[in-house]
Fold:
Amino acid sequence: MPFTVAQLAELVAGVAEGHASTLITGANTIENAGEGEVAFAAGRKALDAAAVSRASCVLVPLAFDGQLTAAIIRVSEPRVAFAKLLETIYPRKRLAGGIHPSAVIAATARLGSGCSVGPHVCIGENTQIADGCQIGPGCVLGDDVALGSLSILHSHVTIYDRVRIGARAIVHSGAVIGADGFGFTLAGDHYEKFPQVGAVEIGDDVEIGANCCIDRAALGVTRIGDGTKLDNLVHVAHNCSLGRHVVVAAQTGFSGSVTVGDYAVIGGQAGIGEKAKIEAKAIVGGKAGVLTSQTVHAGEPVWGIPARPLRGHLKGLAYVQKLPELNVLVREIRQRVVELESRREQSPG
Amino acid sequence: MPFTVAQLAELVAGVAEGHASTLITGANTIENAGEGEVAFAAGRKALDAAAVSRASCVLVPLAFDGQLTAAIIRVSEPRVAFAKLLETIYPRKRLAGGIHPSAVIAATARLGSGCSVGPHVCIGENTQIADGCQIGPGCVLGDDVALGSLSILHSHVTIYDRVRIGARAIVHSGAVIGADGFGFTLAGDHYEKFPQVGAVEIGDDVEIGANCCIDRAALGVTRIGDGTKLDNLVHVAHNCSLGRHVVVAAQTGFSGSVTVGDYAVIGGQAGIGEKAKIEAKAIVGGKAGVLTSQTVHAGEPVWGIPARPLRGHLKGLAYVQKLPELNVLVREIRQRVVELESRREQSPG
Amino acid sequence: MPFTVAQLAELVAGVAEGHASTLITGANTIENAGEGEVAFAAGRKALDAAAVSRASCVLVPLAFDGQLTAAIIRVSEPRVAFAKLLETIYPRKRLAGGIHPSAVIAATARLGSGCSVGPHVCIGENTQIADGCQIGPGCVLGDDVALGSLSILHSHVTIYDRVRIGARAIVHSGAVIGADGFGFTLAGDHYEKFPQVGAVEIGDDVEIGANCCIDRAALGVTRIGDGTKLDNLVHVAHNCSLGRHVVVAAQTGFSGSVTVGDYAVIGGQAGIGEKAKIEAKAIVGGKAGVLTSQTVHAGEPVWGIPARPLRGHLKGLAYVQKLPELNVLVREIRQRVVELESRREQSPG
Structure:
């Protein structure tokens, strides 16, 4: 249902100016917004774009001193306010409550109130689902799983036995949590499997992208802390311990027993070697390769394969780029030395 | 059912020579083909292999002037003709028509004629499936999805709400289309999710590999153009726009808001940074890392991390390889300079 | 149920010392083990940790000469013995036998004795499942599939038509085996699909990680040999041939027609180019990029992009690190040459 500019301003505790009764039915970027849409503009570039935008309403900073034909709403943080409006304009779909009759739920499993369980779901023995969870079609939860309140599993999520996930988790389709860690010992002419009997514990407010794989520990626990966010296709091996509020971009892989400190940021396609230690607030660049047992220091940005401090890596890249020049210089110096030598020989000294 | 050499020749508008009534029951490579099998040979190496092949029939270029014991079929493009024969000899399996009784289909969903819907499928509200589509076992389609005619979803494909896919698409198992883009804002001590309310639009004749992830836009649309082909485990982030007839090898990842021009070719395990622009017909090498906001120019081949024009990158690699040599040379020059200096001091000048 | 130290010692043919009647209910690492838990200690560091461990029982080498308050069990290989105990203490869960009524099984499929088939499984025509297999919830097996005895498919595994898997296989959730290889030919202004009509053959004792993708051959067969182990999210393209007892870490990708020899070890996120040949016992480092048609020689460790022998690659890295130094040296030499030249000019010679 549409909202007036005045209603939206109230929602974000902002100040509306002009056309307060204009109806807003959608939201878009400042470049693409059209009639009936709200957008936001925070930086200089976006504010320039706002001047020519066809948006019907624009969220702007408090200090905005330009003129727009659109209605404006002044707020202290336009982007944050805009995110809030999005939740109102596009409310997150809630699955119909109740348990679909095709779901197969063990007699010993316990579901809280207000849960929704989609078609073709399986839930194992002694599994505990807290209040208000949504389990999408085709999800498979093993035995002794715990899922905190208000968590959302999109379709086709697989949770193996003895995995614990906190409250308000969002797990996207195809993610696999709790599969066996990759542990084998060469025993003569073949590999023997080292039994993977540990567990996985995931905190509150964690989001896990589509087709991610988070392995159970060999012994003990693979941990992911509160508020941590994984993009798609991320691999977390056995016995890793990711801290709180860590952000991991897509296709990154953590080898066994890696530890990651709180608020670290890991770029896409990075690879972290076994037992490496990424300290708090460190930043690992995209495609970086952190070596086995390497430590990335707190707050430090690193890049490259092997990963080293960003500044040093960039300097190294610059030197490599200048190698042709250096090569010419060396050959020129040699020529001058040859000439000096030949004159020396000819000289009477 | 088997075909005679004469029948196959007719199918590809080729000219059969020798043994036109030989029965062909399968197809294989020229190296591995045996009795009853057809193969093709186009290049010099393959034509040499044809001379010793056990194939019963070989597709050869019009100008072929050798002698084979096998029957031959002369055609202008042996590989293309062979692909056509494969479709005849191994007709693509069509699922039995009809809707499996275990499928759960919303009352407001619309299915065209001749569709087949496998067991344990879910189809959401207002979803439109055009004529002749095949939906494999366990697929989950959300609300307001559109799927063009003759499209094939293999088993376990997940399509979130409001994703549109064109005609004749092939989507392999485990692919997830329309999951939330990875958008979070650090708000004090934790990350807040930026709602992902956009959509995905995929053109006609697109093929998407197994376990690929294509995220919905934050706002607006993530687009994949007509005829584009993605290999397995490819990640396409929110708001990307891939053009028409783009080819992307396995495990490559596109960060948010990347644009890729028509006919670009992207190697495997490449990583494309946010807002990068790959222009038409550009070629990104395997494992290359295109930086945030970097432009790869039309038709240009690039490689390396960071990606730069192929020739320059190869030259840089060559210089790095020669560093030990350069090092020796520099030390030798220094020694000669030291000698010159010492003679200079001893000289009467 | 708990075991006494004496019982555990018997299981591993070890010699128990002290507290033989202590009850053991779990297993853990030597660092984390507590009361009632067994651990193992093999190397010097672990034996030091054993001295302060709270474990109730420790497996130690035969020659161990220290003193522990815990009971000890002397064995020749503590790690191997410990793995064996894990299987006893944490017996692998077996699904309840029988076929869940929601499974959809073709009339022509054949299941051996003692198989368990979970809810919402689909099994196609002429598929043969040998004795004692466990098929997890939501698995989809196509037509003409063969699965050897005692194999385990975890939930959501997809097996396309005509895939053969040997005995005692373990396939983790979300793996897709037999999807079409990535084969397209540019035909004028668009790509045409080269039909992928080959098969996949997987040996005995193979383990395949979560969300792996193993494509069928275009023609012929994609092969994975006995005892080979793949970690999560590995991509194996059409017509690859992996040997026996190969170990492949997570997120690695093999392009088309790669061959890998027996006992090769491939690190994580490695990329192997088309038709490359990794010989027996070769070791490919994490993130390495093996070029198209490159050969990695038997037993050779390689690293880097492009991959080259490890020692040479490390040497090259070291030289790159020293480039700033080399640069300073060259500029210093030039200065000295300039001085020599200027003296030369001033000299009477």
